[in-house]
Amino acid sequence: MAKVSSLFTSGFLPNSMTVSIEASPVPALTTSEERIITLDEVSWHDSYGDCWLIIYDRVYDITDFLAEHPGGSEILLEYAGRDASVAFRGTGHSAQAIRALDRFCIGELPMHERMFRKPGGFNLSDLPE
Length: 129
Ligand code: HEM
Prior knowledge:
By secondary structure, the protein is an alpha+beta fold. The chain has five helices and four strands.
């Protein structure tokens, strides 16, 4: 519990975010998500020509999407090589935008580096499948 409250006080999570640390079922993996990619590896892909980011523990290569993003490329580049879960959620993306994520998924974080998709992880009511 101490761990969760420190995330709020550090400003990492907004106070309005509904989280629960109760054990939650972890959705089954699909083929595109089988590759395990570490935070360290993601951090190397942090430029306009090679841009990866993390949303809800999944890794996305959005290099080809930067120019297409309705919110512009600059905002995405702020999260290049980093976790963008809170930013993605905070900007209120539509169900269509959540579905669009699938196109870019190249893998997911190892279990010990995840925040959401792990037993006892943050359980967001609208976490995409
Ligand atoms: C791969 C990841 C992302 C995808 C597929 C995506 C997709 C989209 C889509 C389809 C829209 C149009 C509105 C909607 O349908 O919700 C949108 C708008 C927007 N996105 Fe993203 N987005 C991504 C990541 C992000 C991130 C990390 C941010 C960071 C804050 C962000 C910020 C915005 C903003 C500010 C808008 C509103 C643009 C406007 O209405 O003027 N997006 N995004």
